[in-house]
Amino acid sequence: MNEPKKTNLLALTRAEMQAFFESLGEHSYRAHQVMKWIHHHGVVDFAYMTDLSKALRVRLAEVACVQTPEIALQHFSQDGTRKWVLKLDAANAIETVFIPDGKRGTLCVSSQVGCALDCRFCSTGKQGFQRDLSVAEIIAQVFVAQQSFGPLDNLGQRPITNVVFMGMGEPLLNFEAVVKAAQVMLDDLGYGLSKRRVTISTSGIVPAIDRLAETVDLSLAISLHAPDDALRTQLVPVNAKYPLKSLMASCRNYLACYSERKRITMEYVMLEGVNDTAQQARQLVTLLQGVPCKVNLIPFNPFPHAPYRRSRPAQVERFQKILLGAGLFASVRKTRGDDIDAACGQLVGQVVDRTRRQAQWQAQIPVQTLV
Ligand code: SAH
Ligand code: SF4
């Protein structure tokens, strides 16, 4: 006979954790203690949760667990960037990257195994799609990264100050799990991040942006990449379903829902001769009129058989100047972690594609268990 499934406490929001303890006939305050043990101290074995009674520790071991995926690979780069490959099951792995920059430490997390949206410049998209990540699998990425620095108590300041959903997958197509995981990231009993410092990046799933607007207050980034529908549909095929007019309306609505939301980030990967001309910069200015935003120009990260090249720095500068001249905020993203293939758009993990599309050149990352 199968053993009853244990509840993985890593996945629970504060409200769910309280309900869980109440269901055991315990005071809901136990939720506070256990969340701190897990997320602040990195303790996964109930036996070490010393401020709980012995009886409760034994009971928890029977009905619950704190389970994280196996770390298949971890790599710490010379510039401080850290990357993990987490093995989810026999066939699938995901990547998570930590990028330090002065006092800021940004963790880039994945939300799905692969991605079904097939953007032409994205190596994750080229791998196809396998499945959504669970809440536990999303939170585990923060847990593992935090643990690589040691328990919070021993650290002067939190190494992870920002989380961006810019790893593998389209976060808004895994809505419930992403929102719950974000709630744990924002919770003081979880990772205590400010809502301005947790960013969901989306290719533009309009109905989900509208739903997000009213569900949780987070920062939003849109993967824009083109100033007109024809080009955007080529680069980001989901644009055919949710064209720019509806996307811009949805962005304005997102900002209007909470007065503290000041602006949206517009991501724009610079592709030589494709979307980087002066005329396209001017078109972009027109498109973004009336949408408070900042434009982040991203150097394209090449991958094998990619059909594009990175724009030349002078071209990027020219493009940026036109945006700045029109009064827009516009920055150029630094590339980091190139030496360990950890830059954005290079997160590939291992995906068994369940869509009909088959990437012939599917990247193979060696999965080795660390000693
Ligand atoms: N699916 C979401 C989040 C993951 S992609 C989205 O599309 O927004 C995270 C960011 O990396 C997006 O802005 C995406 O456009 C960008 N990106 C993808 N491939 C890239 C590449 N090869 N070089 C640079 N940025 C890339
Ligand atoms: Fe998916 Fe984002 Fe890559 Fe597009 S850019 S294929 S939405 S991960």
Describe the structure.
The protein has 371 residues and is an alpha/beta fold. The protein folds into two domains: 7-65, DNA polymerase, domain 1; 70-370, TIM Barrel (Alpha-Beta Barrel). 31% of the residues lie in helices and 19% in strands. The chain contains eleven helices and 14 strands. The protein has helices at 14-23, 29-40, 54-63, 123-126, 135-147, 175-186, 206-215, 229-235, 244-257, 278-287, 313-325, and strands at residues 7-8, 64-65, 70-76, 82-87, 93-101, 104-108, 112-114, 129-132, 162-165, 198-202, 219-223, 264-270, 293-299, 329-332. The strands form three sheets. It has a ten-stranded mixed sheet with strand order 3-4-5-6-9-10-11-12-13-14, covered by helices on one side. A two-stranded parallel sheet has the order 1-2. A two-stranded antiparallel ribbon has the order 7-8. A hairpin with a 5-residue loop joins strand 4 (82-87) and strand 5. The protein is elongated and about 70 Å long. The two termini are 35 Å apart. S-adenosyl-L-homocysteine (SAH) binds at residues 115, 121-123, 166, 170, 201-203, 223, 267, 269, 298, 300-301, 344-345. Iron/sulfur cluster is lined by residues 115, 117-119, 122, 124-125, 169-170, 203, 223.
